[in-house]
């Protein structure tokens, strides 16, 4: 069964552009995969905790050596990683917060970047282990941070998320950006059209 994992990170639960765009993408995905499964993880409703020493220590402890405290420390991380491993495709909805991503999404990333699980170290450097998946990154920004904008250098959102995806092996990445949403509908309409084009492909 084909599985889509949807990650919501907007704290705006009722008027979020990224939630609306993600819902539009999910609807088109379900039309193309009527037998598919959709898993939704809402980081605003249930934010992952920031990493602490107990969790980091458990990450680097061999599974056979983890006691009950270590197992408890990484239980949520194991759950989040299992969702990601089960997915064929992941959609991440993220508004721009202070030139990057919401802190809840950063916390999720910290929980799923697991050595020996989603990436490994080799003599040639880190190697991602999730190369059989693809990702769609859906963002919304009050201003225009596109490649043609003077503010592009302050856009640490796209580059960061693409870097993280590549780090865990996901190189088939599509970015859908709703630019300048504080100034009107043009950016949103362009993003909607991109989703429609993906659905038709």
User: Helix- and strand-based class?
Assistant: alpha/beta
Strand content: 15-25%
User: Judging from the principal axes of the Cα atoms, what is the shape?
Assistant: globular
How is the main sheet built?
5 strands, parallel
Q: Mind telling me the C-alpha Rg?
A: 17 Å
Q: Helicity, in percent?
A: 25-40%
Oligomer: single chain
Task: Write down the overall mean pLDDT.
Answer: 95
Count of spatially separate domains: 1
In the CATH hierarchy, the architecture is 3-Layer(aba) Sandwich
Query: First CA to last CA: what distance?
Result: 21 Å
The tally of beta strands, per DSSP, is 7
The string of secondary-structure elements, in order, is EHEHHHEHEEEHEH
| CATH classification class | Alpha Beta
What spatial order of strands do you see in the largest sheet?
2-1-3-6-7
Name the poorly predicted regions: none
CATH topology: Rossmann fold
Provide the CATH superfamily.
Answer: Flavodoxin domain
How do you describe this structure in short?
By secondary structure, the protein is of the alpha/beta class. 38% of the residues lie in helices and 20% in strands.
SSE blueprint and pairings:
Blueprint: E1 3-8, H1 17-32, E2 37-42, H2 53-59, H3 68-73, H4 75-86, E3 89-95, H5 103-112, E4 119-122, E5 125-128, E6 134-140, H6 157-167, E7 172-178, H7 186-200
Helix pairs in contact: 1-7
């Amino acid at each position: 069964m084909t599985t889509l994992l949807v990650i919501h990170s907007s704290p705006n639960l009722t008027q979020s552009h990224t939630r609306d765009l993600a819902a539009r993408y999910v609807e088109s995905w379900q039309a193309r995969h009527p037998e598919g499964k959709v898993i939704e993880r809402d980081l605003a409703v249930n934010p992952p905790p920031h990493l602490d020493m107990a969790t980091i220590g458990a990450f680097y402890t061999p599974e056979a050596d983890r006691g009950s405290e270590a197992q408890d420390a990484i239980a949520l991380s194991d759950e989040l990683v299992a969702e990601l491993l089960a997915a064929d495709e992941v959609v991440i909805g993220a508004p721009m917060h202070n030139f990057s991503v919401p802190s809840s999404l950063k916390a999720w990333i910290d929980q799923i970047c697991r050595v020996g699980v989603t990436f490994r170290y080799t003599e040639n450097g880190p190697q991602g282990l999730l190369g059989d998946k693809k990702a769609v990154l859906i963002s919304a920004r009050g201003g225009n941070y596109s490649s043609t904008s003077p503010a592009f250098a302050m856009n640490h959102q796209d580059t960061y998320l693409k870097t993280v995806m590549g780090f865990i092996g996901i190189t088939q990445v599509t970015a859908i950006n709703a630019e300048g949403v504080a100034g009107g509908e043009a950016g949103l309409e362009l993003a909607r059209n991109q989703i429609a084009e993906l659905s038709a492909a």
